Amino acid sequence: MVESPRWLAARGRDEESVAALATLGQPPLRSTRGDGSVQSAAVGYADLFKPRYARATSVAVGMNLLQQLCGINVVVYYAPSVLSSLGFTAAGSIAVTVAIGVLQIVAGFATSRAVDAVGRRVVARRGILGVGAGLSLLAVGGHLSGGGGAAAAAGPWVAVIGVFVFRVAFSTSLGPLPYVISSEVFPNDARAAGVSFATAANWLANAVVSGSFPAMVSSLGVNGVWGAYLLAVVPAYVATRAALPETRGTELEDVGEEEKRATATGRRSRDDERV
Question: What does the buried/exposed string (b/e) look like for 54-75 if buried means 16 or more CB atoms within 10 Å of the residue's CB?
Answer without folding.
Answer: ebbbebbbbbbbbbbbbbbbbb
